[in-house]
Structures are given as C-alpha cells and as structure tokens.
TrEMBL record:
It comes from Olivibacter domesticus (Pseudosphingobacterium domesticum). Residues 6-214 form the Carbohydrate kinase FGGY N-terminal domain. Pfam families: FGGY_C_2 (PF21546), FGGY_N (PF00370). Residues 246-435 form the Carbohydrate kinase FGGY C-terminal domain. GO terms for cellular component: cytosol. This is Sugar (Pentulose or hexulose) kinase. GO terms for molecular function: glycerol kinase activity.
Amino acid sequence: MKIPVIAVFDVGKTNKKLFLFDEHYRIVFERSARFTETVDEDGDSCENLASLRLSVFDSLHEVFRRDEFEIKAINFSTYGASFVYIDESGKPLTPLYNYLKAYPEALKDKFYSKYGGEENFALQTASPVLGSLNSGMQLYRLKHEKPAVFKQVYKALHLPQYMSFLISGKVYSDLTSIGCHTNLWDFQKNDYHEWVKQEGILEKLAPIVPADSVFQASFPGNNYAVGAGFHDSSAALIPYLVSFTKPFVLLSTGTWCISLNPFNEEALTSEDLKADCLSYIHYQGKPVKASRLFAGYEHEQQIKRIAAHFNVSSAKFKTIGFDARIIEKLKGKDKEATASSPQEQLARFDKRALSDFSSETEAYHQFMLDVVEAQRMSTELSIGTSKVKRLFVDGGFGKNVIYMNLLADVFPQIEVFAASMAQATAIGTALAIHQSWNSLPFPNDIIELKYYAPTNKTVTSSS
C-alpha cells in the first residue's frame, strides 16, 4: 500500500530542501541541496536559477521513482522579494537579482518624488523604503534601465510562483508575496497601487489567485495537485492560524525577532514605520502587523564580548539557568530611564561596562533584561490595541529559559509559550492546501507548547 504524501520545496537563500509529509504531517523523506551562487551582469551575487530549476526536476524524478509513496500534491515556499521575468515561452530573461542589490539613488528619488514622497507612499503600501527589497522597485528599475528587456517580459513572477509555474505551466500571483513590503499593494484601497497601472507594470503581473488554489500538473507523473506557492514568512504563520482561534502574536526568533500579529487590522502610522514595523497579507487575505528587532544578531555579538571579558567559552551561555535573585539585584541597581525606541533599548548593553558585573552569569542576565525590554517595546507595536491572549515564541530564544521567564514577566496579562514545531514553513505550505491532498482532518498536535508563568513556574503542555 503506497503512502499518500505531499511534496514541499522549501527554498531558503542558503539551503534548498524537499520534504515529503504523510497525512499526519510527519516527514517521511527529506533531501537537501546547496548551490554555489552566480553573479548578474553587474558582478553582484545572485541565485543560480538554472541550478534551482534542475534541482526541482531531479528531485521530483527521484521521488516519483520511489514505489512506497503516492504524490498527491506539490507546493512551494521560498524567500520573497525576488522576481523571475519570463518571456512567452516561459524562459527567464534575466538573472534572479538579489534583493540586497544596491538600488540607484537617482532612480529611487525619481520614483518617490513622482508618487507622493517616501513617508506618504510607505504608509499607503505598508512598505518601509528598502530599495531592492521592495520587489516592485526591481520592476521599475528594469523598465527604466533595460526597456528592451522589459518589453519582452510576458510575466514577472515572484520566486514561489515561478517554481509553481515550472510544474503546472500556469502563471499566477499570490497575495502573500504581493502584500509583503513590495511597494505594489495599496493597503488603504486593498488593490494594486496607482503607480503599477501608470507605469504599465500591471499587464506584466499574473492574475491573483487564493492561497489555497491548486492546479493540474504539466510535469510528467501521476495525477497530482500543484499549489500556487508561498512567501516563507507567511507560510510559517499558517500552522498557528489553523491550530488556534484566540487572538495571538507569533514571535519568530532568529537573527531577526519578528512579532507577527494577524489580529491587528489598524493602519500603520509614521511612527510604526520608523520603528521597523510593516504590514503584510497572510494566506487568508487579511493583514498581519509585523514588528522586527535585530535581537538574534545582537545576542551573537554580546555573548562574544562577555565571553572574551570573563575568559570563558561562548558555548557556556547555552546552559546558564534563570536566577531570580540575580534579576532582582540587577533591577534594584538599574535606574536608567526607558529608551525611546526598541532599537535604542537593544543597543543599551553595548554601552555598559562589563567590569561592573561580578561574573559572566550576572552580565548575561543584565544583557537578557535589556534584550527582553527591547522585545517588549517591539512586540507592543504589533499588538497595538488588539486583544491578544497568547504569545507564542518559536526559534532560538524559545529555548532560552532566561529570555522566556523575563518575557512572561513583562507580559503578565498574556499567556506566554515557547512553541516548537519541526519545519514550520514547510508544514504551513502543506497545510494551506490540506483539502486538496489529505483525507484526514487538520492535525491538532503539530505544535508543542511550554507555558511560562509570570511567577517563573513552568509547566509543559501541547496543543
């Protein structure tokens, strides 16, 4: 008896993975690849699109050859903010430009002065001014710098939708990509921004389909459904939206710590944008208010600094337990006024003299106090006036008991949980088209939760 599965391609900047999930969302097959980057015509590094395309086909040929699996569906999640420009035959016309590619200042100034100024435009599109990371600006640049190439473009597809096109042969757009700091979507009108029509960009964009859409495959194999693909940050939220109905914030922690609130529909303010807040659209078409903090990166830097000062290994900080007495002592000594922004608060520890602390443990507790205060300020921006009941923390900081206990203390009115789920992005991408491939009901046990009470007592549960 063959096992019914979904194949999910999870494409990050560094690692490209293929997972097969069974109907219980257990991983039954996994394949990983890394490609050497190539360069575009300016010598800037970029994704090797040819390698990526070949890898998709090779991986699928491999899993179709395996007798133990029946592929019922395929879906894709990839990093966002990058377009593939295809001609009428489906061939890419340019390299896949890197979203970190420097953007010409003169062209940027021309754009914003024509369309109402940076601040006003950013408020309409919920997109801070980010250069190439605003993927619509890549299209604007192509039109103005390479008009002959622009003329040949049949459709501009965000990377997840290009990968879906490789298998389905269909061109579509998806709101999770369009609605994430692209400069393309007017959140106030809930439609493409006026400039998209004025610049002749609209006809280069494929029709928008709902995120749970599936298509017939044109790639050889049995009869299976092909999803439209997802922006990875949107995919990671799906398991939580499927599993929990009470309003929550998901704090996704890594290099960036991003607070995602799918229950806040307030329009962004100028202050929000200045504090690194934006809105994007999740898979059910509603806005998510997101605030971000560079806390994971700061953590890496400061533990090196503390370790060097106290002559210990930075690995030691993984095992330091929470000490309430140290926290009380440090709080009693620290009389500094509150910082004016999350970023300013995050930078506070860097100005502290390490000689003021008796040990690396005490210094690290102070650092975590500073980080969690910055996180409180950042997360409150995403909460706004919404009635959030729960805060789920996934990623690296969710495993840090000092961080989690302090977070529970600064949010006493909200239930704080460390949440863990293997491969959240890939599972979210599979869950989005659950009805198209899975004969079982939605699972209720894919997220493991550990509760942290403000009293610093922890209990374990799962949902």
